[in-house]
Design a protein that fits this description.
The chain is mainly alpha-helical. The protein is 78% helix and 4% strand. The longest helix has 50 residues, at 2-51. Keywords: Coiled coil, Membrane, Transmembrane, Transmembrane helix.
């Protein structure tokens, strides 16, 4: 019988404590929710204020608008430059190829003029050489010659 009394008393104490905890939690919870809501609203307000740029009466909320305001132009910003990347690459590639072709044509004509001018002298100096051997000698001479524009640039740099 005593055990039943103790059991009943423990149950009542447990129920009373549960009610007290529930009332404490219910009372504290709305206040925390209100504080959290106020904190979130304050963060949103600060974020909007930080993202907004005002210059001479104009307001910008995005980076592109801010750039337009700061540049002072209202031109449309290129949003997809990668679409023209291949075309730009091909234009620059073909420009380089064209420069190389023109340069090689100019060099070839200079080499031919050099060979025509110096071949008779080489034939006199080396009468037993074949034409291919003479051209090899002329090529070596061309590489050292001041008439060679590539060599002239190197000579100018080494003279400094």
């Amino acid at each position: 019988m005593e055990a039943l009394k103790r059991k009943e008393e423990n149950r009542k104490l447990a129920e009373a404590e549960m009610e007290r905890l529930a009332s404490n939690a219910a009372a504290a919870h709305p206040q925390k929710e209100a504080e959290a809501r106020l904190r979130i609203e304050e963060e949103k307000r600060l974020k909007l204020a930080a993202e907004k740029l005002e210059v001479e009466g104009e307001t910008a909320t995005t980076v592109s608008e801010a750039i337009q305001i700061l540049e002072g132009t209202a031109e449309e910003i290129d949003k997809h430059p990668e679409k023209r990347m291949r075309a730009a690459y091909l234009v620059s590639f073909y420009a380089v190829v064209l420069v190389v072709i023109i340069t090689s044509l100019a060099l070839n004509s200079l080499v031919q003029a050099f060979e025509e001018a110096h071949l008779p002298r080489m034939k006199q100096e080396h009468p037993t050489y074949r034409l291919s051997q003479l051209k090899q000698l002329l090529k070596k001479e061309w590489q050292k010659s001041p008439e060679n524009p590539l060599n002239a640039k190197l000579m100018a740099l080494s003279a400094k």
